[in-house]
Design goal:
The chain is of the alpha/beta class. It contains 12 helices and 10 strands. It has an 8-stranded parallel beta barrel. A two-stranded antiparallel ribbon has the order 9-10. Helix 9 runs parallel beside helix 10. The radius of gyration is 20 Å and the shape is globular. The structure holds ligand LIB3CWND and magnesium ion (MG). Residues 39, 102, 133, 161, 163-164 line the site of magnesium ion. Magnesium ion is lined by residues 39, 102, 133, 161, 163-164. Residues 9-232 form the HpcH/HpaI aldolase/citrate lyase domain.
Length: 299
């Protein structure tokens, strides 16, 4: 059975204090939006930004875009008020789809936040996304992703924070990301084992769209479900990189149809034009078709 997919090819951050960005996001071709209350909002502007974001969510107009609020960290003075604000908004039907928790280091923290949301009366539909952006989080990413098996954690998606990883480790952010490849792959592996989705980190040099396109292709090849972004011009190249090409979708449909032929009933392996296909390839093909259909349904 192929799950109904929600495309998360492009997920755009914007500062919660930036009213123009909150407005503009209603018409941008992003699969998802992350409205930030953490690093992109100065300490003195936190309370006002929180209210502005709550008002923007209540006003709505974000259509099919998945809306996520990145709250301040678990140990900051703003965390509890952020959580209470969006738990209450979710309880009245005007909340985000998920809260993104920065600098998660342990699975227990997710469970504690999930339990706090339960206590605040937030509906189960309010999910948690976890940022993987500390050395400890990368080392423990399998346990963090596995927390998704426990409904109290509400975990749905892992999000890489490559800027913080560079800061914490001294690794350089370079084209091809050789210094971080092992960590990125570990996160993809952990996400798949835990049954959650995983989004790549941001490309800071927002005027270099060729560099961005290269990094999006690399991320798609590594198995990421999508990439987080910081500027509207990054949306089209990112959506293109994570959309299955028409030829791939056509080939996937042909493979599914081939396995459905009466002469192939009961066969575990077939050949088409000199290439071997097993039923696992038909499973991959079904996922490709489901993603392409979900993307088509959105547009
Ligand atoms: C990077 C920016 C500060 C650049 O802003 P600006 O100089 O205003 O750009 P432009 O003049 O080119 O903008 C053109 C129009 O697009 C709108 N715009 C710009 N960015 C966004 C956006 N992110 N979302 C929605 N709309 C946006 C402008 O308002 C202009 O509109 P118009 O008036 O119609 O012309 C800016 O892009 C920005 O703030 N980006 C997001 C920064 C952010 O949220 N950072 C935090 C997350 S990244 C991170 O922390 C990752 C992780 O934690 C890690 O550790 O790696
Ligand atoms: Mg960060």
């Amino acid at each position: 059975m192929i799950p109904v997919l929600r495309p998360r090819r492009s997920v755009l951050y914007m500062p919660g204090a930036n009213a123009r960005a909150l407005e503009k996001a209603r018409s941008l071709p992003a699969d998802g939006l992350i409205i930030d209350l953490e690093d992109a909002v100065a300490p003195d502007a936190k309370a006002e930004a929180r209210q502005q974001v709550a008002q923007a969510l209540a006003a709505g107009g974000y259509g099919p875009r998945e809306v996520v609020v990145r709250v301040n960290g678990f140990e900051t003075p703003w965390f509890e008020a952020d959580l209470a604000c969006f738990a209450q908004a979710a309880a009245t039907g005007a909340g985000p789809d998920a809260l993104l928790i920065p600098k998660i280091a342990r699975a227990e923290t997710l469970r504690a936040i999930g339990a706090r949301l339960d206590a605040l009366g937030a509906p189960a539909s309010l999910k948690l996304w976890a940022m993987i952006e500390t050395p400890q989080a990368v080392q423990d990413v399998a346990k963090i992703a596995a927390a998704a098996q426990d409904p109290v954690s509400r975990l749905g998606v892992l999000v890489l924070g490559t800027n913080d990883l560079a800061k914490e480790t001294g690794a350089r952010i370079v084209p091809g990301r050789a210094p971080m490849q092992a960590w990125l792959s570990l996160c993809v592996l952990a996400a798949r084992a835990g049954g959650v989705e995983v989004l790549d980190g941001v490309w800071n040099d927002f005027r270099d769209l060729d560099g961005l396109a290269r990094e999006c292709r690399e991320a798609a090849e590594m198995g990421f479900d999508g990439k987080t972004l910081i500027h509207p011009t990054q949306l089209d190249p990112c959506n293109a990189a994570f959309t299955p090409p028409a030829g791939e979708v056509e080939a996937a449909r042909a493979l599914i149809a081939a396995f459905d032929l009466p002469e192939h009933a009961g066969k575990g392996v077939i050949q088409i034009e000199g290439r071997m296909y097993e039923r696992m390839h038909a499973d991959i093909a079904r996922k490709t078709v489901a993603l392409a259909e979900a993307i088509a349904a959105r547009s």
